[in-house]
Amino acid sequence: MAKLVWGKEILKREIGWLIEEKYGGKLTEEAKKDIEKLKKGTPLDYLIGFVEFLGSKIDLSQRPFIPRPETKFWLEKAIKEIQNSKFWVPAKRVQNLKILDLFSGSGCIGLAILKNVKKAKVDFAEIQKKFLKQIEINLKLNKVNKKRYRLIQSDIFQKIKDKYDYIFANPPYISNKRLREVQKSVLNFEPKNSFFGGKDGLLYIKKFLKEARLHLKKTGRIYLEFDPFQKEEIIKILNEFNYSSYQIHRDQYGKWRYFVVGL
User: In terms of residue numbers, what domain contains 239?
Assistant: First the structure.
């Protein structure tokens, strides 16, 4: 009974947010239609149409994977490191940091960096055309200068030629074994190829780490998000591919969530 009551409270709260954010507090006929969609499981963020993410407005019209609070948590820390990068990046490169946002999806990671790090340039790499379109929509929405970014359609590092000061990756990492643990609204409405990472969830992480060092400058850093259940396997993979300098961190909920790697 407690779960049922809690579920109703969450729905009531989301209906309130929907009406306020999208319809200016007015219960219009369109609002009523959206409320019915919300009751059937459509994520609130898709219905509102956008989310705020570290100073950026992220449009969701192409239905990319919705940015998560856990990602925002570690990326905010990464941005602070980038802002202090003059302490370890050669002075001549401080004013022109090259950054790669791999598995870009909505482009939220790269956009947040462009918004918060004035001299950075970002390459967005994404395999799906509709999400490349989504990234372009968001770059225009946030009025980013075209000279500061590139869009690359790439299957992981397939079309990537350069080396970077920072590589950010939020790959699909949910194991097929954990299918039943994923919320129905996520399974039914968000793109499955954005969060499922094969039988053990490590398919894309392994492929990424096998090649990532070839695209990282000597003083570079890699940030990658993973499933808390994968921590021990992640350590094995890092060691297998000879990444000797790495740190594994918890998210705001106390769960192992991301690692930082250097060469």
Answer: 65-262
The helix (H) or strand (E) run that includes residue 149 is strand 149-153
Q: How far is 222 from 75, CA to CA, in rounded Å?
A: 12
106 falls within a domain: yes
| Number of domains the chain is built from | 1
Structure tokens at 132: 């490349």
- Rounded CA-CA distance 83/119 in Å is 10
- Picking from 110, 122, 215, the residue whose alpha carbon sits closest to that of residue 170 is 110
Q: Is residue 180 situated within a structural domain?
A: yes
pLDDT, tens digit, 9 for 90 and up, residues 126-145: 999 999 999 999 999 999 99
End-to-end CA distance of the chain: give it in Å, rounded.
52
Sequence-distant (6+) residues with CB within 8 A of 147 are 121
Residue 79 lies in a domain: yes
Q: Give the C-alpha separation, 222 to 201, whole Å.
A: 19
Check: CB of residue 109 under 8 Å from CB of residue 75.
Answer: yes
The pLDDT of residue 92: 54
Is residue 161 within 8 A of residue 167, CB to CB? The reply is no
CA–CA distance, 118 with 58 (Å, rounded to integer): 19
Q: Please, how many CA atoms are within 13 Å of residue 33, restricted to the half-sphere of its CB?
A: 4
Beta bridge partners of 256: 250
Rounded-to-integer distance, Cα 15 and Cα 134, Å = 26
pLDDT at position 83: 87
Least confident of 140-144, 154-158, 176-180: 176-180
93 found inside a domain = yes
For 2, list phi and psi in degrees, rounded to 5. -60, -40
Looking at residue 231, which CATH number applies to its domain? 3.40.50.150
The 3-state DSSP composition of the chain as helix, strand, coil percent (nearest 5) reads: 50, 20, 30
